[in-house]
């Protein structure tokens, strides 16, 4: 089990939909003993892949590489 606590986000990153949903479920008492970690990790990975695919499809950078898509995701959604 993973215990999710509310913590301030780094001002340079956005909250993911997964983080928001887990926080809402936690606040409403749906998971009084924590949120299953494997489910959260799978949802986070799906979200990461969706963001990287969208960045790739948008073609904002030249040259566009898979590494640049990963870098964009980390800069936008990961705390340091």
Arithmetic mean of pLDDT: 78
What percentage of residues falls in helices of 4 or more residues? 55-70%
Structural class: mainly alpha
Number of helical runs? 3
Order of helices and strands: HHH
State the end-to-end distance: 24 Å
How many strands appear in the DSSP assignment? Answer: 0
Major beta sheet summary: none
- Which range does the strand content fall in? under 5%
Low-confidence segments, given as residue ranges, are 1-9
Q: Round the Cα radius of gyration to an integer and report it.
A: 15 Å
Coarse morphology: elongated
| Domain count | 1
Per-chain topology:
Blueprint: H1 17-27, H2 37-58, H3 66-77
Helix pairs in contact: 1-2, 2-3
Write a brief caption for the model.
With 80 residues, this protein is mostly helical. It has three helices and no strands.
Structural overview:
- This protein has 80 residues and is mainly α.
- The protein has one domain (22-77).
- 56% of the residues lie in helices and 0% in strands.
- The protein is built from three helices and no strands.
- It has helices spanning 17-27, 37-58, 66-77.
- Helix 1 runs antiparallel to helix 2 and helix 2 crosses helix 3.
- The protein starts with 16 loop residues before the first helix and ends with a helix.
- The relative contact order is 0.18.
